[in-house]
Amino acid sequence: MGVVLYTQRVEVVESYEERRDCADQKIAEFICACGFLPVPLPNIREIVVKIFRELKPSGIVLTGGNSLVKYGGNAPERDEMEWELIKLSIKNEIPVYGFCRGMQVVLDYFNCDLEEIPGHVIAKHKLRGIWEGEEVNSFHNQACMQVKEPLQKLAWTEDGIVEAVACKKYRILGTMWHPERNQPFRQEDIARVKAVFGKGEMRL
Fold it and tell me: Where along the chain do its domains lie?
């Protein structure tokens, strides 16, 4: 079973003067359902580099939570760590799947702007594009309207919000919905993660 590293959100607990890393347990369950061994990462760049080199993962999952600092977030250590993860993944040819904030980090890495949008928190949308008609969840305040190369727009909503992107050159997939928040997990999401983290052509 290949190892998949996944990132965690930062929770600031002022009463204890702590910055805590945490993630929904269902994220690990989803990665396991995709056939991989899930390993959570701390939001400490230097340690993550060591973990990456030691474990030689089959894939990376960039998870949700925390806006990017440039868009009002309060976790600069996470921004820095996830940028480093993308660099390492590209350099070492390790696949990446990012959802919600994870896709936003991918967009930001490739110089695609985000903007504040209404009506996409605790909502459901039907996709347009290559996965026409699929209904997905939505929990985000920021979104992208236009993508740049080498990213390719795969799916979008009726109001023009980009909901999925891919970069086949670097084996990267991003979706704005949370796959772990569907119970049971959607087979479409599992199949796509397997396609990204597997070998051979990345068929989505």
Answer: 3-197
Q: Which amino acid is at 98?
A: G
Q: Closest by alpha carbon to 65, among 34, 98, 32?
A: 98
Q: How is residue 194 written in tokens?
A: 């397997």
In degrees, rounded to 5, the angle at the alpha carbon of residue 184 between the alpha carbons of residues 181 and 185 is 65
Q: Are 9 and 22 in contact (CB under 8 A)?
A: yes
Beta strand 162-167 with 172-175: parallel, antiparallel or unpaired? antiparallel
96-105: b or e for each residue (b if 16 or more CB lie within 10 Å)?
bbbbbbbbbb
- Look up the pTM and report it: 0.96
Paired residues of 13 in beta bridges: 18
- Please tell me the class of the 3-197 domain: alpha beta
pLDDT tens across the length of the chain (204 residues): 899 999 999 999 999 999 999 999 999 999 999 999 999 999 999 999 999 999 999 999 999 999 999 999 999 999 999 999 999 999 999 999 999 999 999 999 999 999 988 766 778 889 999 999 999 998 878 989 999 999 999 999 988 899 999 998 999 999 999 999 999 999 999 999 999 999 777 877
